[in-house]
Design goal:
Length: about 80
C-alpha cells in the first residue's frame, strides 16, 4: 500500500518521542509535525535526518483505512491504546 498524498494523518495524529528537526523534544499527539508543508508533504522524506520512527512506519489498510478520515480515526484509536497510563 502507498501513502495517500496529502493525508498526513501519521504526521499529525500520533505522538513521536524522538527528536525531529524543529521539534527537539519530539511531537505530541494531535500536533502537526514541523516538517509538514502546507500541502501535507514531508520536507524530510528520503533524507537522512528523517527520524527512524518515521522511516519505519509503513502504510497499511489497518492503519490508513479507505480514506484520510478513516486514517485519522484509526490512528487516534491506536494512540489511545498505546498511551502510557
Amino acid at each position: 500500500m502507498d501513502c495517500r498524498v496529502g493525508c498526513a494523518a501519521c504526521c499529525i495524529v500520533i505522538s513521536i518521542s524522538s527528536p525531529i528537526p524543529g521539534m527537539p523534544e519530539g511531537k505530541p499527539a494531535g500536533v502537526r509535525c514541523a516538517q509538514l508543508t502546507a500541502d501535507n508533504r514531508c520536507r524530510l522524506f528520503g533524507k537522512p535526518e528523517r527520524p527512524s520512527v518515521c522511516t519505519s512506519l509503513r502504510p497499511s489498510p489497518e492503519m490508513c483505512g479507505q480514506s484520510d478520515e478513516e486514517a485519522y480515526l484509526n490512528l487516534e484509536r491506536l494512540e489511545r491504546l498505546t498511551r502510557p497510563s
